[in-house]
Every structure is written in structure tokens, then in C-alpha cells.
Write a structure and sequence with these properties.
The protein is α+β, with helices and mostly antiparallel strands and about 120 residues long. About 35% of the residues lie in helices and about 15% in strands.
């Protein structure tokens, strides 16, 4: 999610292309292709999420080819933890959202392995 750019989002087809990963090494943010070929994929997103992303982009001062979400992994973890505590639900890691997405797609009749 942190490596997404505006070009990765297909607003017409409601899809996001996952083609890179962003991480931090020795205090520097790096963006590279996923570790394996299966890490590159196209994910269907609901129309409401497409609209939310469009709304988010419309509020950006100057959207460009760089990351769509200017947030670090640590900031994302802190925000997620705060929201989990407010909701009073079981704590999960950011990465667990990927598995939740795969399970939801499977329950909706999606192809196994496509979302992972």
C-alpha cells in the first residue's frame, strides 16, 4: 500500500496494480519490485473505495507520480493500532489485512491464490 502511485489505480475498472514494495533500510525509504513474481498482481477494489481514493486525491496539494499515500510504515501501524483500540476489536498487523482480503474474496467465490 505504501508504494502505490496514482498510475497504479484504474478508476474505470476499479482495480489497483501491485507492482512494487516500499520499505526502509538504514533510515532510507526504498521502492523495489516485490520479492517474487507472484507479488505482482492486480487487485479488484469496490467502487466505493475507488470513489474514496478519488476524493483523497482531490484533496492533495499536488498529486504526482510519487507515492499516493505519504505515510511511513510506522505511522500506518500507529494509526491502525489507535483505530483498533477505539473499535475494541482484536489487534492485527497491517500485513494481516492482506490475508483478510484473500479470505473475504474466497468467501465471495474468488479464485484461490489470486489475492495473495
Amino acid at each position: 500500500m505504501l508504494a502505490l502511485t496514482l498510475k497504479d489505480t484504474d478508476f474505470t475498472e476499479n482495480k489497483i496494480s501491485i507492482t512494487k514494495t516500499r520499505y526502509r533500510v538504514a533510515g532510507k525509504h526504498l521502492t523495489n519490485p516485490p520479492k517474487t513474481g507472484s507479488g505482482e498482481r492486480v487487485v479488484d477494489i469496490p467502487e466505493f473505495l475507488t470513489e474514496e481514493i478519488k476524493e483523497y486525491i482531490s484533496h492533495l496539494y499536488k498529486p504526482g507520480p510519487e507515492q499516493l499515500f505519504e505515510i511511513t510504515a510506522d505511522q500506518l501501524r500507529r494509526v491502525m493500532l489507535r483505530r483498533i483500540q477505539q473499535a475494541g476489536v482484536k489487534q492485527i498487523r497491517v500485513h494481516d489485512l492482506r490475508h483478510s482480503h484473500a479470505s473475504l474474496l474466497n468467501n465471495l467465490g474468488g479464485e484461490p491464490g489470486i489475492a495473495c
